[in-house]
Structure formats: C-alpha cells, structure tokens
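User:
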Amino acid sequence: MSELRNKSKLLSKKRAALVLFVVLMIGSMVFVKAQPITAHERTVTRDEVFSNFKSVDTARSTVEDKVIESDHPYANNYDHTWTITKDGATKIRVHFSYIEVEYSYDYLYVYDYQGTTLHKLTGTYSSGGWTDWSNGDTIKVRLITDYSVTKWGFKIDKIEYEGGSSSDSSTNTTWGNGGKYAIVIGISDYRSISDLNYADDDAKDWYNFLKDKGFEVHVYGDPHTDNYPRYDGLATEANVRAAIQGLAEHAKAGDIVVITSSGHGGADETNGWYYSGGGATNDVTSFLCMYDSASGTNGNYYDSEMASDLNRFASGVKITIVLDHCHSGGFGPDLMNSDNAQYILLLTTATGNGYGYDESDYQNGKFTYWLLQAFSNGQTTWEGAFNWILVKGRYLPVQNEADMPQMFDGNTTVNYSP
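Assistant: Predicted structure:
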C-alpha cells in the first residue's frame, strides 16, 4: 500500500490534470441517462415477439373483444399491473394491437396465473400479437417505467380463452350408446384453497382403467389440461353437477355408471363431532371440494346434492361411486337413503370425520392406488376389490379408526363389476 502511495506522488501535473478531467467527466455521466439511438427502437414481427405462441384447437376456444390499455403516453416512475380474468376458463391469453415502450429502460411484462413470466417486452412492436397461454382463468400484464422519457404505451384489444362461457360453466354432456359410462374427477391445483399432488394422477389412472374396461369416460379436472389424458371441462361444482345430471338424462335401465372423484373434502361441524376427538362416525354433513371451492361461488358438492342428482337416474341404472376425499364417508347415509339406493354402491377413502392421503410412494391417493392394485391382482368386482385391500391387510394400518375406508352397498345380494 505505501509503495503505491509513493508512486502516486510522482504523477506530473499534466497527468494529474488529465486524471482529474476524466474523473469529472465520469462523475457528470452519473447524472445523465444515455438515450438509445433510433436503431435500437426496432420494429419486430409477431413471430419474433411472441415466439412462445402455442397453437390450440380453435374449435375449443373463444375470442372476445376486450380493450385494456395504458395511458398514452404513460407516466414516468410508473408500476401498474392489470389482471384479466375469465371465470371458468381453463386457458387464457391476450392480443396486443400495439406496444411502444422505451427500449431497454421501460418494460411490459406478461405473467401467467401463478406469476410466472410469459413475456418481457421492451421497444416498439407495431404489429402486436398474441401472448402465450396462461393456464387457468387469469393472465396479468404489468408496465414498469423509469424516471425519464415516456412512450405511447400499449393496447390490448382481444382475449382468447378455453373452457369459459357467459354462464361461467362449460361441460360436455354428449354421450354415445355403449351402455357403460364414467365420469372421472381429479383436482390437484385449486383456484383458492391449498393444492394437492396426485389427484390429477388418480384421474389419469382411473381413465385408463375404465377405458380398458369398455367405458366411455369423461374427465373433469383443474386448469392444467395437459395433465389429463382427456379433458371435458373444469371441475367446478356447476360443471360436475351438470355432467352427472346430463348423464342421468341419457342412461337407461341396465346401463352401468361409474363416478370417481379425487380431491379435498370437508364436513360441517354437526353435533360437535369436529372437536370431540372421539371415534369414527358417518353422521356428518360432508362435501367434496370442487375446483372453485371457497372462491366466491359455493364450490362445494354436498352429500345431499349428490343424492338429489343420483335420483335423476332411471331405476335400474347400476351406479358405483368412488370418493378419494377426506370426510367422504359422510356421503353414505344420504346416498343410502335416496330413491335409487338399491342401485348404488359407494366406496370412500375414510369415514365422515376421517382423512384420505396423497402418497408420494405411489404418486396416487392411497385409496385409489390400492383399489387399482386389487383389480391388477385378479379382483373382478368393486366389492371384491374393497375387501381385498382390507382383508389382505394391504391398506392397513390406518392412522386412526376414522381413516378406515368405508363401503355402502344398497343391495348386498348383487355385486358390481367395472
């Protein structure tokens, strides 16, 4: 250090003046923002700007006029996010008619529903273009500007979406005439409540199993449509009920119907059971949490509602229901007291105050996994599969008595086969 100090004293006055001049110039540059030259403000083609664009089946999508725009010109030191939502949509994207922001200093971001960046845009895009898709019903646009130089801004003129409609519901209720029909539901990614890991995998595995057995299968799930082998709609309460009611209108005596559902479940606090810490009971009011649970709509499919929907089926339609939801045993009393009880078989992962479990070892719900294992090991009926997982001890032990799987059989003299 001292040697360096000594050398600094040997600088000539001329060199010292030069150094001082350079320092002063650099210091002055701190306070002046360099402006990009015109060549940087390039016009980019649509394909260059939105290179992540993915084509979809346009027959499944809807384009609507929707104007969302910044001020023209926008302000300095500005940070604002526009949230665009289409209730019931499974995918959504927006179309920019024009974008002009200061190149390299101001930025326009496009985020998906989780906040992941789809695009980071700066400069001029005179042709605009479609953004990439956001899964779910929401996409966001954010404009961030610095302290100087403003430009025109942006304008969105259209949105495109799949799955939504003016009634916020969309479902496929068209069926063939094969006589074997299944509705499969699996929700891992919820709109408002905590997520699960493997409910969508349950749906995929039930679809494959039932398809191999000759069923026509409709699948309802969360917004991640690519996680499902088939996708007939978002698993909102309204869509699921519409699907079951639509099938009820179609099925006739002698037909076979299977309904499987995996996701969160809950129960109302009937007779203080929730706080009692007592044994297992099915004497509760239970519900299945659909995709829109706790999101401003009801979103919960109650035991009494399912019983009412099943009463729409013609007498003689054989109905098997598999519920891999917490508290699903509470559906038993209502379904067994319904008008069609003698044609209903209900299998649940737990009692009315018990829990079901995501299992990382299986990448399924525990109940779903072992039922499918039972069929893989030679069982041919639903009743046989249920007894196999318990009698053989493969499902046991459970954490407590309330978590024991339940079977409710409206007619014990007849076994149902998938």
